[in-house]
Write a structure and sequence with these properties.
The radius of gyration is 21 Å and the shape is globular. The strands form three sheets. Strands 6-8-7-9 form a four-stranded mixed sheet, with helices on one face. The chain has a three-stranded antiparallel sheet with strand order 1-4-3. A two-stranded antiparallel ribbon has the order 2-5. The chain folds into two domains: 111 residues, no CATH class; 127 residues, no CATH class. Helix 2 crosses helix 3 and helix 7 packs across helix 8. The chain starts with 9 loop residues before the first helix and ends in a 12-residue tail after the last helix. A hairpin with a 2-residue loop joins strand 7 and strand 8. It has 271 residues and is an alpha+beta fold. Bound molecules: zinc ion (ZN). The site of zinc ion (ZN) has 7 residues, from helix 6, strand 9 and helix 7. Zinc ion binds next to helix 6, strand 9 and helix 7.
Length: 271
């Protein structure tokens, strides 16, 4: 995604969500069926165009709910997986047919409309999904290990698909999401990651802490201040969170929240 398009990059969406308390929760409340990047993308467009954030659907999708998109309404842009066919060039002598293969990529399309852009029959609102930590851990194939570190500053650690949280951790649920993020982001494949009270300033830790921030804020849990401060500190150092890492953060946070929803319906696009 480049800046000359009329929507924000994942990095820009993440930076603004970190700076604006309440934005992640607002995005999740209105667009919890979508992945985090898309939820923030939709929310930003609604704010800019003065549209009430609410259920999203395609033109045809709304018809199924007996609602019609109003004339002249412009679609909301989201990121979606797209497939395309490509002829695979073979190093074969001339005259041999080249093979057609299907590739997938992600693209941005303005195919969606919010409820406020439609008219028709009344709709039930979709309840916000619940979250259960044990369900999330089971779904993500992560187990809890015994906390065996003697150092009282250590809050938690992650190794392989195991996490452990100190019984005296300052903000246990924040540390739990941070350690789950290390597993989901595959930071833990070959070594034990130990987190002490002060999160070291590196990009892996930014990723894990940003995921913890998104999860805590979305579930209205306390302890987001440290995560927010940590990421703002990183950004103030003129260090960008690259777009690629912002996308990874949104994908991991969406995956964790979805995994903890006992009634997951499945409608996630990307990031
Ligand atoms: Zn960490």
């Amino acid at each position: 995604m480049t800046n000359n398009q009329n929507h924000e990059t994942w990095a820009e969406l993440l930076h603004s969500a970190v700076r604006t308390p309440g934005k992640l929760l607002a995005a999740y409340t209105a667009f919890h069926n979508y992945s985090f990047g898309n939820a923030l993308l939709a929310l930003t467009q609604c704010h800019r165009r003065n549209l009430e954030p609410g259920p999203l659907n395609t033109y045809r999708g709304w018809l199924e709910f007996k609602r019609q998109v109003r004339k002249g309404e412009k679609g909301i842009t989201l990121c979606m997986p797209m497939q395309y066919k490509k002829r695979a060039r073979k190093d074969e002598p001339e005259g041999v047919e080249s093979e057609e293969v299907t590739r997938s990529t992600f693209g941005f399309r303005a195919y969606w409309f919010v409820l406020a852009q439609t008219d028709g029959e009344a709709m039930d609102t979709i309840p916000i999904p619940g979250f259960d930590l044990d369900t999330a851990l089971r779904t993500l194939n992560i187990t809890r290990a015994e906390f065996d570190e003697m150092n009282g500053n250590i809050q938690g650690f992650a190794t392989g698909r195991e996490i452990a949280i100190s019984p005296i951790a300052a903000i246990p649920h924040k540390t739990t999401f941070h350690e789950i993020a290390h597993c989901v982001l595959q930071h833990t494949t070959n070594k034990k990651l130990v987190d002490s009270e002060a999160t070291p300033m590196n990009l892996r830790e930014v990723e894990a802490e940003a995921v913890a921030l998104i999860c805590c804020e979305t579930l209205s849990l306390d302890g987001v201040e440290y995560a927010r401060g940590y990421i703002q500190h990183w950004l103030r150092g003129q260090r960008e969170i690259p777009n690629h890492n912002a996308a990874r953060i949104f994908t991991a946070a969406s995956m964790i929240l979805k995994a903890g929803n006992p009634l997951e319906m499945g409608c996630t696009l990307t990031a």
